[in-house]
Design a protein that fits this description.
TIM Barrel, single chain, alpha/beta, Metal_Hydrolase, globular, two-stranded antiparallel sheet, AryldialkylPase_Zn-BS, Phosphotriesterase, 8-stranded parallel beta sheet
């Protein structure tokens, strides 16, 4: 077994239990929040703790939260939330961008105006080894993204920095990908070039695709398939998401499937109150209440569900 860093301390990988591999506590633009948002810190924290405790009571023990630079990571707030729930919260380091790097990295680093070593890699290594800021909380995995725009210079730079940090520490990686353009295959190529073990990589948002050829290519290269946007029916309906997992299990790929919603306690990308109306299934309860029963009804065994929810996330860290 392996020690896994959580917000409240180290947990043995064998004790992670049922794990959703891609959920967010908060997705916030902190600069926007400070300047333009009405915000009651205590109320927001209490509401997030309540939502996550409800998830724990539904049988989920752990969430992996890939909220990194670009998505508003603020660990002191997550620590407050964690104190109000028995759920394990595992946090990440990395950068979330579809195009360029943040301006903090724009002028320093390889092939930039002032040159020098890659500062992002050093920051990722610090988060993994020493802790994030002065919180005492260490990141347990890495996050990057490659969207429909593809491998822009900025995206490639972040991905290679993530890859270098993973290769040096063996920390696993989650990649936000765009299934329609098969960007997961590009991510695998770049990460492998940096020395990353593709068996320690989740190709996030693979569940937006029903293309079994694409999905099997990703899995055959060793990576986990992030079937991790349950509830975002506007991108792919519920039935198709479920049927894709059923077929993957039928073909023997249960050991390469992980699952989640990509939901959050609060996301400020949309007007508050819109999501429950527009995408009513996009919440932390959907997998426990709807998805798992549907998988069982379609013949997915309890053993395969245990593999997806428990064994695969544990192996991701081991």
């Amino acid at each position: 077994m392996t020690d896994v860093q959580t917000v409240k301390g180290v947990v043995d990988s064998g004790d992670l239990g049922a794990t959703l591999v891609h959920e967010h506590v908060f997705v916030l633009g902190e600069e926007y929040r400070v300047n333009y948002s009405e915000w009651d810190e205590d109320a927001r924290v209490a509401d997030a703790s309540r939502q996550l405790q409800e998830l724990k009571e539904l049988g989920i023990d752990t969430i992996l939260d890939p909220t990194v630079l670009g998505l508003g990571r603020y660990i002191p707030r997550i620590q407050k939330v964690a104190e109000g729930t028995d759920l394990n919260i595992v946090v990440a380091t990395g950068v979330y961008t579809y195009d360029d790097v943040p301006f903090q990295f724009h002028y320093t680093g390889p092939e930039t105006l002032f040159g020098g070593p890659e500062p992002m890699t050093e920051l990722f290594l610090k988060d993994l080894r020493e802790g994030i800021a002065d919180t005492g909380v260490r990141a347990a995995f890495l996050k990057c993204a490659i969207e429909e725009k593809g491998l822009t210079p900025g995206v490639e730079r972040v991905m290679r920095a993530v890859g270098a940090a993973s290769a040096e520490t063996s920390a696993p990686v989650t990649v936000h990908t765009h299934a329609g353009s098969e960007s997961g295959l590009v991510a695998q190529r770049v990460l492998a070039e940096e020395g990353v073990d593709l068996g320690r990589v989740v190709i996030g948002h693979s569940g937006d695709s029903t293309d079994l050829d694409y999905l099997c290519k990703l899995a055959d290269a060793g990576s986990y398939l992030g079937m991790d946007r349950f509830g975002i029916d506007v991108l792919l309906p519920f039935e198709q998401r479920v049927d894709t997992i059923v077929e993957l299990c039928r073909r023997g790929y249960a050991e390469k499937v992980v699952i989640a919603h990509d939901a959050s306690c609060l996301i400020d990308w949309f007007p508050e109150g819109l999501i429950p109306q527009a995408q009513p299934n996009w919440n932390f309860r959907h997998i426990s209440e709807d998805v798992l029963p549907a998988l069982r009804e379609r013949g997915v065994s309890d053993a395969d569900i245990h593999t997806i929810l428990v064994d695969n996330p544990r192996r991701y860290f081991e």
